[in-house]
C-alpha cells in the first residue's frame, strides 16, 4: 500500500514536471523501476501513465497554442505521432538489454539538455544578430527525429523541441510551451497504443494505475500553476532531480 501511495505521489510530480518542462520521465521511470518493473517495461509504462497528464495539459493550453513558424500545426502533430510510433517500435523490437545499458547515457544526455539547452539555443541568433529561419520541411524533419527519441525514451524531449524552435525560428520559450505540451501528448499517445499492444505494461496494473492517476492530476495542476511559480525555482527543481537520477543510474550500472 505504501508503494502505491509513493507511486501516486511520483505520478503527480511527474505530470506536473511534464506540464512545466517535459522532464516527468526523470521521476516516473525510477519510481517504476523501484517498484520492481524491468527498465524497458518501466519506460513503456511511464509513457503510458503520463499520457493523460499530457492530454490534460494540452487541453488547458488549448487557447494559447501558437504555430511554429509557417509550419502547419496539423502536419507538425502528425509528424510527432509518426515519430512517436517509430520510437516505440524501436523500444519494442530492440533487445531489452540494449535499453538497460542505454538508460544512464540517455539520462545524462537529457540532463545536459536540461542544463544548457535553452541557453545554447540563443547563441546562434545572438552571434548572427538574428535567429536563423528554418523552413517547414526542416522543422518537420527535426520534429520527426525528436519524436522518435520521445517514443523510445523521451527524457527532456520537450526541452529539445523548444530548443529547436528557438534556434530555428527565434520562438520564445514561454510562447512555444503550449505547443510543446500538445506535441508531447501526440508523441506519447501513439507510443502508448503500441506499448499497450506489444509491451507487458498491463502485467503490472497497480503501479501503472497509480502512476496514471497521479500523472493526470499533476498534468492539470502543473499547467495551472506553471504561470504562478518562479521559473528559476521550477527549472532548478527539475535539474536537481535530473542530476540525482543520472548519478544513481550510473552507480546502479
Task: Produce the secondary structure layout.
Blueprint: H1 2-20, H2 25-34, H3 39-60, H4 73-93, H5 96-121, H6 123-128, H7 136-152, H8 157-169, H9 173-198, H10 205-225, H11 231-252
Helix pairs in contact: 1-2, 1-3, 1-10, 2-3, 3-9, 3-10, 4-7, 4-9, 5-8, 5-11, 7-8, 7-9, 8-9
Question: What does this protein look like?
Answer:
With 253 residues, the protein is mainly alpha-helical. It contains 11 helices and no strands. The protein has helices spanning 2-20, 25-34, 39-60, 73-93, 96-121, 123-128, 136-152, 157-169, 173-198, 205-225, 231-252. Helix 3 (39-60) runs parallel beside helix 10 (205-225), helix 5 packs antiparallel against helix 11 and helix 7 (136-152) packs antiparallel against helix 8 (157-169). The longest helix has 26 residues, at 96-121. The two termini are 28 Å apart.
Q: What value does the average pLDDT take?
A: 83
Fraction of residues in helix:
over 70%
- The string of secondary-structure elements, in order, is HHHHHHHHHHH
Rg over C-alpha atoms, rounded to the nearest angstrom: 17 Å
Task: Indicate the low-confidence ranges by residue numbers.
Answer: 124-128
Q: How many E-type strands?
A: 0
Compute the separation of the termini in Å.
28 Å
Q: What class would the helix/strand composition place it in?
A: mainly alpha
State the shape: globular
Q: Which percent band covers the strand fraction?
A: under 5%
Largest sheet: none
> With helices defined by DSSP (H or I, 4 residues minimum), what is the helix count?
11
